[in-house]
Amino acid sequence: MSEPILSDDAKHLATKRGVGELAEKMGIEIVELSAERAVATMPVEGNTQPRGLLHGGAYLVLGETLGSFAANVWAAPDGYAVGIEISASHSKSATQGKVTGVATAISLGKTLTVHEIVITNELGQRCSTVRITNLIRQP
Fold first, then answer.
1. CA distance 45 to 96
2. What pLDDT digit, counting tens, does each position of 16-31 carry?
3. Which UniProt keywords apply (predicted)?
């Protein structure tokens, strides 16, 4: 895998905090990270429900990882972001390979950020749409 594309604030954040234990357990790999756009991949294998489909909660973990990371880049260098609302609509199943999440900022404000995360399978088909709102806090 090539080196991720990180903004300066994202480099500092990634070095300081890492991606977190859950994201590591699920195999999430950051590809690109800034407040405006974040991209990551996650393997289907190891993250499935009993019928062999990518677990719906896995889509949410990928979405929250991307949206929260992007919000934390926005809050940097002094503030931090915490998720306060998340929702998802699953439209297709992934059964193999990797899925890719692309988070796009809808709103970057002083106290709230909103990101939409589109998660696609290896064929480029949309499998899930996640929306997350983060609260920006100051230390």
1. 7
2. 777 789 999 999 999 9
3. Hydrolase
pLDDT of the residue at 9: 73
Q: What is the pLDDT of residue 1?
A: 56
In the chain, DSSP finds a helix count (H) and a strand count (E) of 3, 7
Q: What is the CATH number of the domain that holds 65?
A: 3.10.129.10
Q: Total structural domains in the chain?
A: 1
Instruction: Identify the DSSP state of 1.
Output: -
Mean pLDDT of 90-107: 98
Give dist(CA 112, CA 127) in Å, integer. 26
Kindly report the pTM of this predicted structure.
0.92
Peptide bond between residue 77 and the one before it cis (omega within 30 degrees of 0)? yes
Question: Residue 107 belongs to what domain range?
Answer: 5-137
CA Rg value for the chain: 14
